[in-house]
């Protein structure tokens, strides 16, 4: 692969390098400028994708999330143009949106009864919740460590039992109630992170760029509070 070097004598390129560094450091203005600059790439990808029944506007939104993820993850010295790197990320997110939408539509059609059709026509999110959210949520929670799984399941009664207070959860884990609360926050930060929650967010129509930016900001704030330690919960 041809290696692309950043020329220091190209003012435009140098300025974009600065924008990437600032955006990846948390600068919203730089992030927005990069999103606007490369938005045409999202439209180019979507026009070439097979969308099925996914509305064009939703495909664009999914593509913009892919662009945003590319901006946050692009390594300036990785040896390839940003457009090449971002293209794959945009395609991936659009394809996943198509997949989720198609699965939801097939579920609705498979129901085949007037009541489900009435609910679906009145509130599509309700039918998604009835058929898809439960399984998707449990699959996501299952990716947590055993201890954090217990905290989430006990706190929200995902095992069919009543919600348990932090004091009882902490007693089961051998920690105080305040530590149980901290573990609960840690689990929620991980579950909400854009890298983990896209399928669930898509089903709940909580996958706008603003939703992902908020989740990313919360994750970064929590990491700073715990001293910058990374790793899977």
Explain this structure to me?
The longest helix has 30 residues. It contains twelve helices and no strands. 24% of the residues are buried. It has two domains: 111 residues, RNA polymerase sigma factor, region 2, helix turn helix motif (Rna Polymerase Sigma Factor, Chain: A); 120 residues, Winged helix-like DNA-binding domain superfamily/Winged helix DNA-binding domain (Arc Repressor Mutant, subunit A, Orthogonal Bundle), CATH 1.10.10.10. The chain has 233 residues and is an all-alpha fold. Helices cover 73% and strands 0% of the residues.
Q: What fraction strand?
A: under 5%
Q: Can you give the helix content as a percent range?
A: over 70%
For the record, the CATH architecture of the largest domain stands as: Orthogonal Bundle
Radius of gyration: 21 Å
Return the average pLDDT rounded to an integer: 75
Distance between the termini: 36 Å
Specify the structural class. Answer: mainly alpha
How many helices does DSSP assign? 12
Largest sheet: none
Could you name the CATH homologous superfamily of the largest domain? Winged helix-like DNA-binding domain superfamily/Winged helix DNA-binding domain
CATH class category label of the largest domain: Mainly Alpha
**Low-pLDDT runs:** 1-8, 228-233
Give the overall silhouette.
Answer: flat
Query: In sequence order, what are the helices and strands, one letter per element?
Result: HHHHHHHHHHHH
| Count of DSSP strands | 0
Could you name the CATH topology of the largest domain?
Arc Repressor Mutant, subunit A
How many independent structural domains?
A: 2
């Amino acid at each position: 692969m041809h290696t692309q070097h950043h020329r220091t004598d190209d003012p435009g390129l140098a300025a974009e390098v600065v924008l990437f560094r600032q955006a990846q450091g948390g600068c919203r203005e730089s992030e927005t400028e990069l999103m606007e600059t490369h938005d045409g790439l999202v439209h180019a990808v979507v026009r070439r994708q097979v969308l099925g029944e996914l509305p064009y506007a939703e495909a664009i939104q999914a593509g913009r999330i892919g662009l945003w993820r590319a901006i946050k993850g692009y390594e300036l010295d990785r040896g390839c143009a940003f457009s090449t790197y971002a293209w794959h990320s945009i395609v991936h997110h659009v394809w996943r949106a198509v997949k989720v939408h198609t699965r939801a539509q097939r579920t609705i059609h498979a129901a085949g009864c007037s009541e489900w059709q009435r609910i679906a026509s009145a509130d599509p999110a309700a039918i998604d919740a009835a058929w898809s959210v439960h399984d998707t949520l449990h699959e996501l929670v299952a990716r947590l460590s055993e201890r954090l799984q217990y905290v989430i399941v006990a706190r929200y009664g995902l095992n069919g039992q009543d919600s348990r207070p932090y004091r009882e959860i902490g007693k089961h884990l051998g920690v105080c109630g305040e530590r149980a609360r901290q573990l609960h926050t840690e689990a929620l930060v991980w579950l909400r992170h854009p890298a983990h929650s896209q399928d669930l967010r898509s089903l709940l129509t909580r996958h706008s760029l603003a939703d992902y930016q908020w989740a990313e900001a919360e994750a970064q704030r929590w990491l700073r509070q715990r001293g910058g330690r990374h790793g899977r919960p």
